[in-house]
Task: structure prediction
Amino acid sequence: MTQPQNNSILSLSWAPALIGFMGMICAANLTVAQQSELSPYSRFGFGLVNQLQVPVYAGLGGMETTLFSGYQFQPNNPASATFLSQTTFQASGIGSRLSLEQGDNPRATTSFGSPGPMGIVMKRQSGENALILNLSPYSGAGYVITRNSEQPNIGSVQERYEGGGGLNNLNLGWAHVSKGSRYVKAGPNDSLLVQNGALHMGIQTQYLFGQLNRSSTLDIIDPTFLDHRNLFTAQHRSISATAGIVYDKLLSARYTALKNFEQSYSIRFGATYTPETNLHSTIQSLDETTQNLGGISVGLDTAFYSERTDFRGRMPQSYALGSSLHFDRADGLRWALGIEYKSTRWDQVSDSFAPEMQSQGVDWVQASSYRFGFQFNLGNPEQRHPTWGKATYRLGLCQQLQPYEIDGNQVLNQSFSGGMTIPLIGSRSLSRIHFGTELGERTTTEGALEDRYLRIHFGVSLMPFFKNNWLIPRLYD
Result:
């Protein structure tokens, strides 16, 4: 019989990792097939960009730099992975309701669902390094627009515009945390060594891929006239890297003479950066004359056809800066308040896009956003509810300018959000259930189309029970 021995080599049960990876591959196909947005504003360029978040950060207005949770990582910032306590698998889904209104026209509403980000972080409990694998929707498009009019010498004409598809973001990354300590007073004649600060750093690949398609049809009701149809398909792929950094600094801490913690204040500063990179596109454009036969448009003659198998463009650089203030108290009361600014320079790369990607009357401009977030936990652990009393509650605000102007007016997205995280009932691990809600609107100018939406995010974070950790030193062979 082999004698028990110490072994410093990490033991990894590959089953959970393999399940998570296969789940993300399935989600990749699902994300391509489903619409993540059904909005007329999604018909330009790459669709609506960076609209979907995991539930925790959706409840914080989409913050990416500092307000991190120990139960769910932020896919847009690799430095968030080291805030997790241990290996974590997370997945989410999103239900949306869209309401459109323009002038005195009747309001139109629709409901739809889509998958959210899915990923896994491999991290030892109390470890300093983390490995990231994640898949997220990056942009989405989905719209159907119909307009009827009367034209001289032609009669009734119907214009129909349709589109769909989107881009996905695949991340593989690594994160590391370095911690420092100092002594603080514990009563009048003693001191205690505590963590003074921590520097969290991370880097991950950002592989964008996906397909967008759109069609426009001119249908003349008089059968003596031929109709016209334009079909456009673009497949995009781009690889870049995103770096994130967060510095967590202890401002003050108070302990009793018995070295019991009372309260503390800390501040965080965070940033992310993605450099400008190449964009490879396969673009097909077809103009043809058609005729409606029995309600089906049949192509008769090709007026124009173009195919570019490897068109070279550029994807923009972006950066985000943020800061937050954190308070902790001995009875479990916690709160954090943060602010963040993000900028993406689409205006610097718009000249590299194919002409077919730039609609008439639309100009690419700098995209920017301001986000505010607040989260808190209740105190008094002896009196609070075992589930709702242990929940983390969140509120957020977001004001975002999309990267295009329509007839000189930039698309503005404004939203109010909220959410919470509760323990997974019946689990003896740190696994959590997450909820997030967003209520917002998109518009250009007063009197333009108002695109109001309600999103409900639901997600789960799975962590191993402490007797079944996935990354532990072996004690025997």
